[in-house]
């Protein structure tokens, strides 16, 4: 086994990674491609990739990770990566503890482990649905399913789109907007949204901002940055930045201009994105884990992701895990109880208002 920085992957390593991933049978999520690991490696100095060999010396897999103090490992890009795991040759099944030992890790933590990662699934503490939109049969089939399953939602959203057009001007979507200024506009909207709702502003972290900007310029078959912008009368009203492969769009950062909130521009954006994505050969939009009303209305199904940590034998790893698990269980306790979750949500919103700028 070799443990190297992502930037030290050779051309053959990258080709092998892509080949193994293509043979996995899993959805072609961009987060599982070498380009994502390479991008994180540019902004996270402790990013590493384990290049795993079989008994014959041939490369049989890869595990991207970040190494922390005392050998604590975590999925590469943890906190922003929506799909995580190892990329292994079908049928190749190394022991998790041997893999961790070879990486010099006492534990490997994940929060969006991909379904089917049998190497690490036994270590999962919780599972979550990741909501998806299936447009593999074309947008018309998807809209037909919406009319049957969410008729009021679809009718209301289309009515708001028409009203937006009447009041603000022609509504149009640019699926692949290449203007960097629009990416900065989106990040500004998203940061403001985080603050309004009392959540941690991801873009306040330089590495996340730098990662997003780098991926915006990444163009590879398995992982390309995709900025989609909804315009009304030539003015941007909503936008989304995500990563796409040929067949999957991993939804990442959606936001809108609060001035147009009454039109629900984010919902209009998602419907327009679904149509344009289907026309461009994308078969699935993965909206990620985390319950939200708009996801319930838009989804056609769910995938499963897992949260937990694979812990190597040893007192240090065990103590680290025991120290973290109560917090994980407490968060799960609140999430599983709607009334408590609602109180927590309102508390976050109040905190966000208190932290916001004071009015004169």
Protein described:
By secondary structure, the protein is of the alpha+beta class. The protein folds into two domains: 2-129 and 304-352, Aminopeptidase, CATH 3.40.630; 131-303, Aminopeptidase. The protein is built from eleven helices and 13 strands. Strand 3 (59-67) and strand 4 form a beta hairpin. The chain starts with a strand and ends in a 5-residue tail after the last helix. Residues 336-340 and 354-360 have low confidence and may be disordered.
CATH topology of the largest domain: Aminopeptidase
Unreliable spans are: 336-340, 354-360
Would you tell me the overall average pLDDT? Answer: 91
As for the number of domains, it is 2
* Radius of gyration based on Cα positions: 21 Å
The global form is elongated
Named at the architecture level, the CATH assignment of the largest domain is 3-Layer(aba) Sandwich
């Amino acid at each position: 086994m070799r443990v190297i920085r992502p930037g030290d992957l050779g051309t053959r390593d990258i080709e092998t990674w892509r080949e193994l991933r293509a043979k996995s049978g899993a959805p072609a999520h961009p987060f599982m491609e070498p380009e994502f690991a390479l991008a994180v490696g540019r902004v996270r100095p402790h990013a590493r990739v384990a290049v795993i060999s079989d008994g014959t010396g041939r490369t049989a897999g890869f595990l991207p990770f970040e190494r922390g103090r005392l050998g604590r490992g975590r999925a590469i890009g943890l906190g922003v990566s929506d799909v995580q795991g190892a990329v292994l040759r079908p049928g190749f099944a190394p022991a998790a503890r041997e893999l961790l030992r070879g990486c010099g890790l006492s534990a490997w933590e994940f929060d969006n482990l991909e379904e089917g990662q049998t190497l690490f699934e036994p270590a999962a503490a919780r599972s979550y649905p990741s909501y998806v939109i299936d447009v593999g049969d074309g947008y018309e089939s998807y809209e037909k399913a919406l009319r049957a399953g969410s008729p009021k939602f679809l009718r209301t959203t289309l009515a708001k789109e028409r009203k937006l057009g009447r009041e603000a001007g022609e509504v149009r979507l640019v699926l692949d907007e290449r203007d960097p200024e629009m990416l900065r506009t989106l990040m500004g909207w998203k940061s403001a949204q985080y603050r309004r709702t009392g959540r941690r502003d991801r873009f306040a972290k330089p590495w996340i901002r730098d990662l997003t900007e780098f991926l915006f310029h990444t163009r590879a078959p398995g992982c390309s940055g995709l900025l989609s912008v909804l315009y009304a009368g030539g003015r941007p009203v909503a936008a989304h930045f995500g990563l796409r492969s040929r067949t999957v769009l991993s939804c990442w950062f959606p936001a809108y201009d609060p001035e147009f909130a009454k039109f629900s521009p984010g919902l209009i954006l998602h419907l327009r994105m679904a149509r344009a994505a289907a026309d461009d050969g994308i078969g699935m939009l993965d909206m990620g884990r985390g319950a939200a009303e708009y996801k319930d209305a838009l989804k056609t199904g769910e995938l499963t992701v897992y949260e937990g940590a694979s812990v190597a034998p040893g007192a240090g790893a065990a103590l680290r895990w025991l120290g973290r698990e109560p917090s994980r269980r407490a968060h799960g306790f609140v999430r599983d109880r709607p009334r408590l979750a609602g109180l927590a949500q309102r508390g976050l919103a109040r905190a966000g208002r208190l932290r916001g700028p004071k009015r004169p």
